[in-house]
Amino acid sequence: MATEVRVPTLGESVTEATVATWFKKPGDAVAQDEMLCELETDKVTVEVPAPAAGTLSEIVAAEGETVGVDALLANITEGAAGEAPKAEAKPAAKEEAPATAPAGGGESVDVMVPTLGESVTEATVATWFKAVGDTVAADEMLCELETDKVSVEVPAPSAGTLTEILAPEGATVEASAKLAVISSGGAAAPAPAKAAEAAPAASTGKDVENAPSANKMMAEKGLTPSQVMGTGKDGRIMKEDVQKAASGAAPAPAATAPAPSAPRPPSSADDAAREERVKMTRLRQTIARRLKDSQNTAAMLTTYNEVDMTEVMALRSEYKDLFLKKHGVKLGFMSFFTKACVHALKEVPEVNAEIDGTDVVYKNFVHMGIAAGTPTGLVVPVIRDADAMSFADIEKAIAEKGARARDGKLSMAEMQGGTFTISNGGVYGSLMSSPILNPPQSGILGMHKIQDRPMAIGGQVVIRPMMYLALSYDHRIVDGKGAVTFLVRVKEALEDPRRLLMDL
């Protein structure tokens, strides 16, 4: 008996959706209410559960297709009959790998790519924490995947032995792809020997993973990890370590060189031997692509000003202890800048707008993006409705988002929908820079290092803590007058914070 899977009700005034991700493929067994796929509408993501248990026999609407309400998505064959083809297909697949066939009653469990997040369809396998033949516990972390923005940990779905890795490190996998196979029985003994035979260089006997290029070169040179001294983090073996070990292992040819004192011209081969080629992470690839797209698309221009931070620093110094005691969070500079930008955006709304084709979309709210540097690259978590938040709410949100960004725990939803961005290069010591727009936004404010400088005030030269400000903007939508006005309003609000209270 076949059961149809149809598009559910999408919400008021929503008539169509796009199939974003299928979490199952034809032939897979599904349980009732298990999530089959994810649909994207203009505003929300809709999950489609299985209406009945059985086998997914057919997918009618593939990923990327646009479907209407109640459209047919797939068919499920109910009952044991639907599982028969899958059971028959198993022996044929096992004929190719007889070493794992005599499992003695062991049951194989597939390790699949988990849900990656809204609009994310693929990921890169960053690190395997287990090798073929290793015993794993249920929910123990097996590997880590990298997407455009976040890292995803993959736990073991059951206890057993890791008998096969289908997606090695560096491989790109689609959502719901198979990563590995775990045997929950006790007869996977041949697997460790097979793994050691196939990749002797990958087993180091240490808790750290060597560079993939180093493992490859050790296999080529016939070296074992015990013969190589690792100079990387935590003793990690790098490619150059293998090269040093290989050259040291055969000193005789070098000793017979006819003219050791004669200078040898440098060659590209010598330089290549001291290089290490590392594939860019998906996050770095996305950053590179988006920044270049921003430069190619927007008519980007930057205007500069400087702000005297005396009043903000005095106010912060006077109230920081009371602020911490009452709100449980430190009073920093970012809340002042966020408030000042919100104040300026109300006066110059085109800086808080975006271009959509031939239309200009003005945002009557401020979703503030706060750029944050992480060990894996720059991310921009978004503080939603910052224009309706207090100083304490802003500081709490910045602290929480910053911690999640550093830990790689931000979701895709937390980095989408920003209308304006603040980037603080001053924390790294930058004195002046031109930030690049975060499309489709039309403005980004660059903060910089606070530095004491001599200033002429009231006919006298005095030392003041000064900061350069930079506003990069899309000149297609923001005129020079609007950009300069915005930056002046930010400067005025920071030099006299009382203006924020009076909305002046």
UniProtKB/TrEMBL annotation:
EC number, as in UniProt: 2.3.1.61
Domain Lipoyl-binding: 2-77, 108-183
Pathway(s) served: Amino-acid degradation; L-lysine degradation via saccharopine pathway; glutaryl-CoA from L-lysine: step 6/6
Cofactor(s) recorded in Swiss-Prot or TrEMBL: (R)-lipoate
Entries under Gene3D superfamilies matching the protein: 2.40.50.100, Chloramphenicol acetyltransferase-like domain, E3-binding domain
Residue stretches of biased makeup (Basic and acidic residues): 85-97
Pfam families (UniProt xref): 2-oxoacid_dh, Biotin_lipoyl, E3_binding
GO MF annotation list: dihydrolipoyllysine-residue succinyltransferase activity
Catalytic activity of the protein: N(6)-[(R)-dihydrolipoyl]-L-lysyl-[protein] + succinyl-CoA = N(6)-[(R)-S(8)-succinyldihydrolipoyl]-L-lysyl-[protein] + CoA
Residue intervals of the Peripheral subunit-binding (PSBD) domain: 209-246
InterPro entries membership: 2-oxoacid_dehydrogenase (IPR050537), 2-oxoacid_DH_actylTfrase (IPR001078), Biotin_lipoyl (IPR000089), CAT-like_dom_sf (IPR023213), E3-bd_dom_sf (IPR036625), PSBD (IPR004167), Single_hybrid_motif (IPR011053), SucB (IPR006255)
Keyword RNA-binding carried by entry: no
Top-level taxon: Bacteria
Cellular component terms (Gene Ontology): cytosol; oxoglutarate dehydrogenase complex
GO terms for biological process, alphabetical: L-lysine catabolic process to acetyl-CoA via saccharopine; tricarboxylic acid cycle
Key words of the record: Acyltransferase, Lipoyl, Transferase, Tricarboxylic acid cycle
Residue segments, region Disordered: 81-108, 242-275
Presence of keyword Amino-acid biosynthesis: no
Biased composition (Low complexity): 245-259
NCBIfam families per record: PRK05704.1 (NF004309), sucB (TIGR01347)
Function text: E2 component of the 2-oxoglutarate dehydrogenase (OGDH) complex which catalyzes the second step in the conversion of 2-oxoglutarate to succinyl-CoA and CO(2).
Record's subunit section: Forms a 24-polypeptide structural core with octahedral symmetry. Part of the 2-oxoglutarate dehydrogenase (OGDH) complex composed of E1 (2-oxoglutarate dehydrogenase), E2 (dihydrolipoamide succinyltransferase) and E3 (dihydrolipoamide dehydrogenase); the complex contains multiple copies of the three enzymatic components (E1, E2 and E3).
Family: Belongs to the 2-oxoacid dehydrogenase family.
Protein name: Dihydrolipoyllysine-residue succinyltransferase component of 2-oxoglutarate dehydrogenase complex
Organism ancestry: Bacteria, Pseudomonadati, Pseudomonadota, Alphaproteobacteria, Rhodobacterales
